[in-house]
Amino acid sequence: NPCYLIVMPIAINGNGTITGVTVGGLPDGIVDTDMLAANAVATAKIADDAVTDPKENLSGTAKAWVNFSLASGSIRDDFNIDSLTDNGTGLFTINFTNAMANANYCCVSSGSQATNQVLSASTYNRVCEASPNNTTSCSVACYAPNNATLVDIVYAGVAVFGD
Q: Most exposed: 4, 39, 150, 154, by fewest CB within 10 Å?
């Protein structure tokens, strides 16, 4: 049995058309966009930026969080926080950039008199509470637990979970 080697030039032009090969793989045909589409895989891949659901809509993740100082009213770092409103000593409102789906979300808070403070029997003297107001904000109150006096603390953290 003789073996034949057929050499045909294959070319790809500027619009992606391959010439010199048929759809079946034999020489002398053209594989173009229409032929490729007819034989394409039915499931499209996810293109870059095709997922448009922002982080705050993913189930189980914090929808908003903030690390801030009540003493200075300044935000150190945050996600989905528009601003803070100072309502007096120890009282703040946290305003969200994107509203929560409803007012039944959960606020988790923490507070300390100083950053990087190792808590001990003598330093656990501040409490920070947060509570939902409505879909666009939540309230924060910080106080000394021994006498319930409102205080502006150096470190406050609030995370919000919900729909």
A: 4
CA distance 141 to 128: 6
Q: Which residue has the tokens 């790809």?
A: 12
Dump strand ranges (E) for the chain. 11-12, 18-19, 30-31, 64-69, 74-79, 81-86, 91-96, 106-112, 127-134, 137-144, 149-150, 155-161
Give residue-wise pLDDT tens across range 42-94. Answer: 555 545 444 555 554 566 689 999 999 877 878 999 999 999 999 999 999 99
Q: Which residues pair with 149 in a beta bridge?
A: 144
Distances (CA, A) of 64 to 61, 90, 146: 9, 21, 30
For residues 132 and 107, the answer to whether their CB atoms sit within 8 Å is: yes
Q: What Å distances lie between residue 30 and 22, 26, 40, 105, CA to CA?
A: 6, 10, 16, 60
